[in-house]
Amino acid sequence: QVQLVESGGGLVQPGGSLRLSCAASGFTFSNYAMRWHRQAPGKERELVAFISSTGGRRNYADSVKGRFAISRDNVRNTVYLQMNSLKPEDTGVYFCNARTPNEYWGQGTQVTVSS
Description:
0% of the residues lie in helices and 51% in strands. It is mainly beta and 115 residues long. Strands 2, 4, 5, 6, 9, 10 and 11 form a seven-stranded mixed sheet that branches. A four-stranded antiparallel sheet has the order 1-3-8-7, with no helix packed on it.
């Protein structure tokens, strides 16, 4: 069955960096685009970053452009989110998402940006 397992979250000070990973299994990873979403407390889940199946196309939410970078390794079946210059408003649970076209979500990883 399809599994998406996120890791790499944690507590970081404003201005710091984190790298999230999402290990995928149960489908042909290299055939599908991948997405990172996040959900802040009391807010709806929002799309943060998108990467096409080959990695040739990447899109970002305006709020993270220039600070976050999405990438993927189609050999390791893993998608990454490098987050730099983190702000308190980046706090939330980060989820990776695959549409095969059925939609799958990981369990999420908590990111807390606080001094």
